[in-house]
């Protein structure tokens, strides 16, 4: 989709959005760019899980999601995180609409590995006919959930944003997080290839939530999204994740 920018905002990053973020969205909209926001909410899901004295189980940065965890995830993402982001957009006079996977079968998915992760999926289809007329007029805000038939699936938000950007052939994907990019010895790496990421993972320099983020970014770069950046602000390039011939 021409002129499309997909921005993923991590659960922590939502609480740290600066006025410049909203100003940039406004400038892009005025310039005719289409904007789709995918929000996380992992920290809030874990907080509620702990409050209810249930175990928080993760593997490779992915939440192991049984029925109870799925219910909590849906509650937090659609009842707490998404309205919080929509309210901030409203406060900055930006027109936005929040959608979930079940609206016109908006986001469809498939299971990742039920034995390992439970009801965790990846996004396989976006209802483009429904989306197209919405996008020029408003910012579309999405939670990282998908439907397989009538079964809801929890999707890592980085993976959701990358899949959506790939399926829609976005020009740009920003993975906004709470760090200025991929760090090595305290410095932001300006670029990152798959091969470099593998070495840094083996050296335990890339750990926890940064692992699925980089995997998602590489996937989007491979699928033809022209610019893929991991950063903490839209005005800073942070780390550009690039597709190389050595994958
Ligand atoms: N090499 C690295 N560079 C930067 N952050 C890293 C690295 N390795 C692990 N991390 C961790 O990854 C976190 C970002 O992932 P995550 O917490 O899942 O963010 P988000 O909620 O925005 O998706 C950082 O806050 C940091 O703690
Ligand atoms: C399968 C899986 O792990 N889903 C994530 C969805 C939210 C998310 O990714 O939020 P952040 O981007 O804020 O971490 C979760 O349950 O935490």
Automatic annotation (TrEMBL):
Residues 3-232 form the Aspartate/glutamate/uridylate kinase domain. One of its GO terms (molecular function) is ATP binding. Its EC number is 2.7.2.8. GO terms for cellular component: cytoplasm. It catalyses: N-acetyl-L-glutamate + ATP = N-acetyl-L-glutamyl 5-phosphate + ADP. Substrate binds at residues 41-42, 63, 154. The record marks 8, 213 as: Transition state stabilizer. The keyword Cytoplasm applies. It holds the Pfam family AA_kinase. Keywords: Amino-acid biosynthesis, Arginine biosynthesis, ATP-binding, Cytoplasm, Kinase, Nucleotide-binding, Transferase. It is an enzyme of class 2 (transferase). It is found in: Cytoplasm. The keyword Kinase applies. Pathway: Amino-acid biosynthesis; L-arginine biosynthesis; N(2)-acetyl-L-ornithine from L-glutamate: step 2/4. One of its GO terms (biological process) is L-arginine biosynthetic process via ornithine. Its main location: cytoplasm. Catalyzes the ATP-dependent phosphorylation of N-acetyl-L-glutamate. PANTHER family: N-ACETYLGLUTAMATE SYNTHASE, N-ACETYLGLUTAMATE SYNTHASE, MITOCHONDRIAL. NCBIfam families: argB. HAMAP family: ArgB. Belongs to the acetylglutamate kinase family. ArgB subfamily. This is Acetylglutamate kinase.
């Amino acid at each position: 989709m021409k002129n499309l920018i997909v921005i993923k905002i991590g659960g922590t990053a939502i609480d740290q959005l600066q006025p410049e973020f909203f100003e940039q969205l406004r400038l892009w909209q005025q310039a005719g760019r289409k904007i789709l926001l995918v929000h996380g909410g992992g920290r809030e899901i874990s907080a509620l899980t702990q409050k209810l004295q249930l175990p928080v189980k993760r593997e490779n940065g992915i939440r192991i999601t049984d029925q109870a965890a799925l219910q909590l995830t849906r509650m937090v993402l659609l009842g707490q995180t998404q309205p919080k982001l929509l309210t901030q957009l409203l406060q900055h006079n930006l027109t936005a609409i929040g959608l979930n996977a079940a609206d016109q079968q908006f986001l469809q998915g498939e299971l990742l590995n039920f034995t390992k992760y439970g009801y965790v999926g990846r996004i396989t289809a976006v209802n483009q006919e429904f989306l197209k007329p919405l996008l020029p007029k408003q910012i579309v805000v999405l939670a990282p959930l998908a439907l397989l038939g009538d079964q809801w699936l929890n999707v890592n938000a980085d993976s959701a944003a990358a899949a959506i950007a790939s399926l829609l052939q976005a020009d740009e994907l920003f993975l906004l997080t709470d760090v200025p990019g991929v760090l090595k010895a305290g410095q932001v790496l300006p670029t990152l290839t798959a091969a470099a990421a593998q070495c840094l993972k083996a050296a335990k320099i890339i750990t926890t939530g940064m692992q699925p983020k980089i995997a998602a970014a590489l996937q989007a770069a491979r699928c033809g999204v022209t610019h893929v950046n991991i950063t903490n602000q839209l005005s800073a390039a942070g780390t550009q994740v690039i597709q190389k011939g050595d994958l």
